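Structure (tokenized):
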């Protein structure tokens, strides 16, 4: 069909989210998927796309609309599969625009999980609006592991052999990458940013962990993931909306299994892990602090033990939070996480 037909159709969808308070209507799951397909395939005009993103942000996406967006990403985006007998991965969902206030812990947490036999799936892109925060690829690169510029088949190989997959949007989902300019031009996170917290490229059984800041975001995530038939997931009120658990306050988390939620308030001081959440400075200082933490030392030590211990417990590798924390301490003293990093660096060196 000609572009003009699709543009007229997009107008009808835009009117559903862009009308006034009393006349706007939410889209169905199918309509939301249709709108995003037209956006990603660029049959909608730039003016239409920008208007849609801004109007949808003001009105806020509804659960069925987010589910429709995830449907499109699952169908059009990169796909990752577990091997036969491979343990279900933890898939971390956090803001694609990174961190700029607190020091990230999750790359180090991932290394501990991997060295304990727990596969990990991460995702993100390059520095992007509105925060232009530090990204996963930059952090791993600072540790000596470059995960940019590799094909999806190589990501799958790393995941199969070593348990780690990092979906890098510029390399693995260029259609979605084209939409970054709209984030800059409208100056706000679009509804796609909410969807990114609950989408994963992994197909099949996994444990999804989604970060949030505000309670309405968590509630919307629960409803959306229910529509998507996600049987088990965890929501975390993490640092800057990430999945990093804070150590300067109680951690608000929830486990949802077959839509039965269990609120878990975790207190780091009860386990000797409380302290100050370290402010972000720069990559050079982070590298120094990160390697200190991998040696069970330095200012990030407590945060790493708390996060990795919690996720070993969430994943079912440790049968209690206490056991998870003890496992991390033993892991770091034995140098297992650093050895895991070296194995990944050696793998990357073979990929060209």
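Design, position by position:
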């Amino acid at each position: 069909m000609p572009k003009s037909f699709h543009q007229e159709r997009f107008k009808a969808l835009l009117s559903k989210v862009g009308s006034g308070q009393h006349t706007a209507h939410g889209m169905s799951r199918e309509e939301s998927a249709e709108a995003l397909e037209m956006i990603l395939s660029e049959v909608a005009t730039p003016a239409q796309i920008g208007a849609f993103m801004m109007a949808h942000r003001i009105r806020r996406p509804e659960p069925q609309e987010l589910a429709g967006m995830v449907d499109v990403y699952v169908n059009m985006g990169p796909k990752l599969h577990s091997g036969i007998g491979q343990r279900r991965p933890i898939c971390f969902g956090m803001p694609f625009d990174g961190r700029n206030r607190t020091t990230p812990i999750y790359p180090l947490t991932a290394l501990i999980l991997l060295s304990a036999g727990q596969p990990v799936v991460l995702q993100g892109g390059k520095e992007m609006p509105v925060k232009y925060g530090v990204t996963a690829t930059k952090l791993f690169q600072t540790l000596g592991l470059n995960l940019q510029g590799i094909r999806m088949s190589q990501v799958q190989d790393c995941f199969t052999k070593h348990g780690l997959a990092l979906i890098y949007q510029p390399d693995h989902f260029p259609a979605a990458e084209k939409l970054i300019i709209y984030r800059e031009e409208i100056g706000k996170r679009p509804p796609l940013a909410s969807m990114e917290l609950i989408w994963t490229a992994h197909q099949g059984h996994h444990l999804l962990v989604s970060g949030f800041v505000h309670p309405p975001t968590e509630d919307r995530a629960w409803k959306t993931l229910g529509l998507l038939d996600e049987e088990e997931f965890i929501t975390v009120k993490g640092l800057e909306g990430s999945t990093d658990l804070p150590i300067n306050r109680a951690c608000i988390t929830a486990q949802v299994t077959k839509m039965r939620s269990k609120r878990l308030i975790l207190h780091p001081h009860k386990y000797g892990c409380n302290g100050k959440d370290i402010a972000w400075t720069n990559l050079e200082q982070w590298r120094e602090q990160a390697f200190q933490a991998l040696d069970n030392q330095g200012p990030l030590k407590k945060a790493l033990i708390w996060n990795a211990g919690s996720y070993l417990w969430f994943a079912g590798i440790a049968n209690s939070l206490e056991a998870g924390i003890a496992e991390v301490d033993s892991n770091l003293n034995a140098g297992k996480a650093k050895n895991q990093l070296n194995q990944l660096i050696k793998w990357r060196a073979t990929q060209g």
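Reviewer-requested clarification: The chain has a mean pLDDT of 95. The domain at 83-343 is CATH 3.40.1030.10 (Pyrimidine Nucleoside Phosphorylase; Chain A, domain 2).
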